[in-house]
Design goal:
The chain has about 260 residues and is an alpha+beta fold. About 15% of the residues lie in helices and about 45% in strands. The protein has a five-stranded antiparallel beta sheet, with no helix packed on it. It is globular.
Length: about 260
């Protein structure tokens, strides 16, 4: 009897072959799974909503929930990728995709994606700057201490942190006043020698802004593994933004 993991592997192979467009749905069927893609015009007839279904044949028990689907549109030399995630029934959707061009799909990882919502929002510096326009000259003279406190607060980095539901991986994101980003991961021993696939995704559209594979190395704490990287002050990341990551064992590689 084929296992759920084997069904997911066949799904990944089938999905890589799929091409679809606004007026062209797609269907692929293998030995153990069928995949359908149903693009539908949105109400304004300017974009399309895409519905993806992975159906295990023969009533196989497959853990689909949280598996990531990449939806890629390539025009000439430029490509744009949107992310969607399968639910427990093997269904995923992504709304408001552009109409032109051909789309392809991939299931890059075989592990459940971890999603940390709204890790990057509109910078407080920008909000406060707009608010300061309303200050009068008299107010600035009478509130020097308040102004100094605000300037000091702006110089402090914004820190967001979290962990996976089982506590096995902790993440910390720091954003400096000039927009420099630093992302740090610390994982338990069972992830020794593994990697973490890290993505920043525009929260409202699901559009991929940045991605990197992070190699875990031994941390200073016994039995812990860590990895970190930095982005320059102008990475071009659209906000608000979600942090998506997938812990990959040493033997797992992105589907090619």
């Amino acid at each position: 009897m084929i296992s759920g993991v084997e069904v997911v592997e066949e799904t990944a192979r089938l999905i890589k072959q799929i091409r679809f467009s606004a007026n062209r749905p797609a269907y692929m069927e293998g030995e153990h799974v069928a995949v359908s893609v149903d693009p539908r015009w949105s109400a304004d007839n300017k974009t399309i909503d895409v519905f993806i279904t992975c159906y295990a044949l023969g009533n196989q028990d497959v853990d689909w929930e949280g598996l990531r689907i990449n939806i890629e549109q390539r025009n000439e030399e430029r490509s744009v990728t949107w992310l969607s995630f399968l639910n427990r029934r093997g269904q995923a959707a992504r709304n408001d995709l552009p109409v032109g061009g051909e789309y392809s799909l991939s299931l890059p990882y075989r592990v459940k994606s971890q999603i940390a919502g709204r890790v990057l929002s509109i910078q407080e510096r920008q909000i406060r700057s707009r608010g300061s326009i309303q200050w009068t000259e008299q107010a600035e003279e009478t509130l020097p201490q308040s102004r100094a406190v605000n300037e000091e607060a702006l110089a402090e980095p914004t820190v967001r942190e979290g962990r996976t539901p089982d506590g096995s991986i902790q993440w910390i994101l720091k954003e400096s006043a000039d927009g420099q980003l630093e992302i740090y991961f610390e994982a338990q021993e069972r992830f020794a020698g593994g990697q973490i696939a890290v993505s920043l995704v525009e929260a409202t559209s699901g559009c991929l802004q940045f991605s990197r594979i992070l190699q875990l190395i031994p941390a200073s704490k016994p039995g812990r593994w860590e990895g970190r990287f930095s982005l320059g002050p102008s990475p071009g990341v659209k906000r608000p933004c979600d942090l998506i990551f997938e812990p990959l064992p040493p033997t797992d590689k992105e589907s090619t």
